[in-house]
Amino acid sequence: MIGDAVERSLRSPQVLIPVGELLSNAAGSRMPDVQPDLLTSEVARRVVAACPTSALKVDKVDDSAGREYLVLNYGDCIACSRCIAAGSGAFRYAERLARCGVGKEGLVRRWDIQSRAEVVQDEPALSQAAEQIRSLVGRALNIRQVDAGSCNGCEAEIVALTNPYYDLERFGIHFVASPKHADMLLVTGPVTRNMAVALKNAYDAVPSPKLVVAVGACGCRGGIFGGSYAVVGPVDAVIPVDGYIPGCPPTPKMLLTGILQVLRCSPSHSRRP
Amino acid sequence: MTETVFNSDAGVSRALELLRSANTRLVSIFGSSDPGSSNDNRARRVHYLIEVNGHEYRMISAPVTGSIPSATEITPAAAWYERELHDQYGIECDGHPDPRPLLFHENWPENVHPMIDDVSHVPWAEGQYHFLRVQGDGVCEVPVGPIHAGIIEPGHFRFSVVGDTVLHLELRHFYTHKGTEKLFENAPVMDGVMIAESVSGDNCFSHAVAYSQAIENALAIPVPPRAQAIRLIGLELERMIAHIADVGALCGDVGFSVPAAYTARIKESLLQASTRFFGTRFWRGMAVPGGVTRDLSAAETGEFGAMVTAAARDFARMARLILHTSSVQNRFESTGILTAEIARQLAVVGPAARASGIRMDVRRDHPSGRYRNLNVDVPQYKYGDVLARARIRIDETAISTGLILETLKDLPAGSILAPVPSSGNAEALSAVESPRGELLYWVRIRDGKIARCHIKSPSFQNWPALPLAMPGNIIADFPLINKSFNLSYSGCDR
After folding, report:
1. What is the CA radius of gyration of chain B?
2. A1, A10, A53, B361 - which has most CB atoms within 10 Å?
3. What is the predicted ipTM?
4. How near does any CA of chain A get to the CA of B280, in Å?
5. CATH of B2-94 among 1.10.357.10, 2.130.10.10, 3.30.460.80, 1.20.140.10
6. How far is CA B50 from each of CA A139, B23, B206, B461, rounded to the nearest angstrom?
7. What's the confidence (pLDDT) of residue A266?
8. Do B200 and A151 touch (CB under 8 A)?
9. Contact B201 A151 (CB under 8 A)
10. Of all residues in chain A, what percent carry a pLDDT higher than 90?
11. Is A162 in Cβ contact with B490 (below 8 Å)?
12. Band (B40; pLDDT cuts 50, 70, 90)
């Protein structure tokens, strides 16, 4: 019987997703993207009113021109798609999203509403810990996942990283059982009052140099639980964070993009497609 | 549901009397602020939700002035509800055998009750939690958690063992308590669904439907039949995905990695089918009060059905292999037995109840929406071991597939979303059979906003049963037994 299963499994078509299709792919995440050519003040005001979190706002610059900017913070976005319904075509589901595994400022995008163009920022420099870890471990990375209060949506997607479609191990990345074996903490959830101490202890147990990645809307900015009496705040309210992966929940492709982005591990060097 | 509202504490005696009588099951006990006494914002009511004769929900509510008598002596299933009632509302239950705080850990000060007190700045407190001490020659304590070895939610397990054999297991949960029921307060009815979706992420669609139905029941919104059919498809798909993943994870826990990897692949294929046809992997944003947000075209119906059929066929093949493998039988059989008697006393629900000889299912006993038009088979096994819980999931995956295909074949025409009034004052209950069992939402709406939302989650109900399936088993079987219940920590802790 087992032999049959192995044989059938070997005969079944490969489902492994090639690296090129994984990176920056945001399909199914319901995260918004902006079509700048359709952006108007009227649309901007409507989507800001529709947004249930503070992910969208209009920034008015106090100069003679009185320029207005639409600001989208992916860290606050819970992927409810209300802006897409209210945006009359200027908002649509993101097919691609590079803002995974970036620093806090990297989560924010700005569009000049008058000139209907995105304000492009410089790429932030790689954190020192990432440089050190890369030189120490090459492409092998050990991750300890910590749920600091999540709804388990992020966990469901992190578990999916190990399935035959994504096969995280092809990049030399493993999940380990102890923080003492880890190079990186992958932390989900708004940090609850009851998990704050355990999270801090887990962080202290990871040998230096170490990386911390905050996952999901709750991990990045607190999400819809931000104001609760039982929540301390986002991950960086308790421990320092090197990279943020937005989404509610981020899809496995976004998680993988984010983890590799934090490491700046070049995917062209990976062993398999 | 029938509700009896009392204006004196005679209501509590009436509820306890009902719980004492035969053919009743405690569904939930929860508190609310008394809407009748506007001059006292600390006035509270207690609500007892009881199922009678297996197919009728009855609610009894009464004002609380001092303390109330505990129902735990009558039905041990009341124990956690009464501890939560005290933590949230400061209602004392006289005669409760274990009045320790439940939701709050040592960091929470005594006498701060978030549903009636100001909790904008709660100071940090210190204290000590006392576990039950098991004493005797050779008894050791093994503490596990809150952070576990795998990619799992946090919770603490305290084992008392002699050698490998577990004598006693004490749970300590609520590490992921997020004050969710309080967050619902003052949320517009259309926004509440986003909170509901984040109660237990892997069952987010069940939560969204249960919440939406409660709103629809309260405001008498007629949900279009097509929307009800699409909801049924989503609920059954969520059950398929959960059960397939659980059976695979059970194989992983006994080191049988081929089915573990193969079921993970089947699960992913269903999530990708959801992405393709509904734009969302876990059906987030699909259910809203009034209906659903995305339709299925005639061409898509056939393709989606074919993908579900293929996944079900692959899984059935894998399930046969699993059940016929002797090393799996050896590990699953007679491991972690939950007896029918204990399951009844703790009012256990869902697959765990059905694996312990209790035939119950909200889809059959309290049907709503499209389930009113369908007959749902309810499988049952009597042994209550890991194998029985695995078999229930395998059987139910096939039943869910049948329900999806039957619904796809006969999708009603028409719209998928009904308008929702932005004002209104009402209360209502809604029940859904989530993959983990009976899930209920009770809402009170005031001026179009949520004044109170209580969530009865199947995990909150079933967690206390897990420690009673452990004694006599070896500690190395705990991950397997725990996985066979597969309860949600976040759903329980809320």
Report:
1. 22
2. B361
3. 0.93
4. 5
5. 3.30.460.80
6. 57, 10, 21, 14
7. 45
8. yes
9. yes
10. 59
11. no
12. low
